[in-house]
Amino acid sequence: MEKAALRLDEEEVIDLPVASGTDKQQAIDIQGLRAATGLVTLDPGYANTAETTSSVTFIDGEAGVLRYRGYPVDQLVDHSSFLEVAYLLDNAELPTDEELDYFRNRVSEHCALPKGFEKVLESVPDGTHPMQKLAVSVTLLGSSRSDRPKGSEAYVSDFIRLIAMMPTLVAWSYRSGHDQVYIKPDPDLGYVANFLNMTFHPGQGDYRPTEAHIKAMEALLILHADHGQNLSTSAVRLVGSGRTDVYSSICAGVLALSGPLHGGANQRVIEMLEEILAAGGNTRLFMDRAKDREDPFRLMGFGHRVYKNVDPRALIIKRYARDMVDKNSSRLFDLAMRLEKEALADDFFVSRRIYPNVDYYSGIIYQAMGFPTEMFTVLFALGRLPGWLSQLREMMRESNAPIKRPRQLYTGYPKRDFPTRSDR
Ligand code: SDX
């Protein structure tokens, strides 16, 4: 299709160009619409709107396909590491051995928090959610940056510094809320093992995370690394389009991710499953609630704006969850599988093509590793960081990337004059 014809009432027809992307994806380009017709388009939630082009991640929601820079995500999980994937997302190519060594060394040099920074999290009010702690930390990391290089090296330096320090921040956001001592990073352990060590080290004696935990964490981080123009990435791009610093844009992503309909769902899946168990395993009651239009309850971990087939990440995560569960967590996993089976046999969900998404089984793995539910979305943010940074850089590489400022269709009062008090 080369162009689309827009007929306005019965007369004038406007030709609109059609933009083409990879794998036959196409979009009607309406950049000239308002100038030609005075009209804008209305699309609440952007369900029909591509706000940007991007070459980072490809998603085919109907087919359940997800690729980072062209590589199927299951192949990256099987053959790559999270640091390699972070490099791929930002540089568009997998690194050579030399490039990866250089990248890994730069990350290792920057994984310690600035001197005294750990006290920042010790001073937040008790009970602060770890996502809020992370948002505060990321913002302050940027403001405490006095040695930032200039020009294009500035972005690379910020990318490395955030990728390097995020595991330390996440580990400390957990330990500082549980009266545990700060564990310094040990980059020689490797990126993921170092993160698990900083999180779970008892503070004295020997501790090493198990290979199974390292492997499962690596897979989860890769699977969360990017996902096109999702809510939190869109927040990063929106805030970044105003030329804020990288850290403020990433802080916007962290806070956007925390919502229960987005990244916060992984915490609520476990809370929902535990509520079902407490109700005697009565899945029917919860499914009926999810189907009741008067009830705001939704099956957490189910449904997706883009996937109208199974989320490919959920299939892989379910496999790791099955390998990870033990006698303590098998009840929750068995219930999750039963609920999935019942939902996928129920016409309400089938007719709306509602399937398990990335958040449905991930919490079972996190819980089996020893993370409390309040940390689950923080772990999502740890994985999503390279995606946010790569998408932000892609936007800022565009010459004169425009400030993002959607239009509206005003439906309020027409002009009216100010009334005296007695006329109100
Ligand atoms: C993530 O966008 C991304 O890429 C996000 C993400 C990423 O990697 O960044 O993939 C991560 O956020 C995954 C989603 C995690 N959220 C949840 O699991 C929360 C539960 N899911 C729903 O709230 C919902 O499915 C959304 C928010 C995820 C998607 O909502 P949409 O696309 O706006 O769909 P909708 O609300 O218009 O629903 C369509 C219909 C409605 O019913 P009808 O009006 O047709 O009668 O499906 C129903 C909805 O009520 N529906 C559900 C449901 N999801 C949709 N009903 C019950 N339970 C659900 N989970």
Descriptive overview:
This protein is mainly alpha-helical and 424 residues long. It has helices spanning 33-37, 73-79, 82-91, 97-109, 118-122, 130-143, 152-175, 191-200, 211-223, 231-240, 246-257, 265-278, 283-291, 312-324, 330-343, 347-351, 359-369, 376-397, and strands at residues 3-7, 13-20, 26-28, 57-60, 65-68, 71-72. It contains 18 helices and 6 strands. The strands form 2 sheets. The chain has a 3-stranded antiparallel sheet with strand order 1-2-3. Strand 4 and strand 5 (65-68) form a beta hairpin. Helix 12 packs across helix 17. The longest helix has 24 residues, at 152-175. The model has no long low-confidence stretch (mean pLDDT 95). It binds s-citryldethia Coenzyme A.
| Bound ligands, each once | s-citryldethia Coenzyme A
Task: Please trace the helix and strand order, writing H or E for each element.
Answer: EEEHEEEHHHHHHHHHHHHHHHHH
Strand arrangement within the widest β-sheet reads 1-2-3
- Averaged pLDDT: 95
Count every helix, treating DSSP H or I runs of 4 or more residues as helices.
18
Distance N to C terminus: 57 Å
**Class from helix and strand fractions:** mainly alpha
Proportion of helical residues: 40-55%
The dominant shape is: globular
Contiguous uncertain segments of 5+ residues: none
Radius of gyration (CA) equals 24 Å
DSSP summary, beta strand count: 6
Strand content: 5-15%
Largest sheet: 3 strands, antiparallel
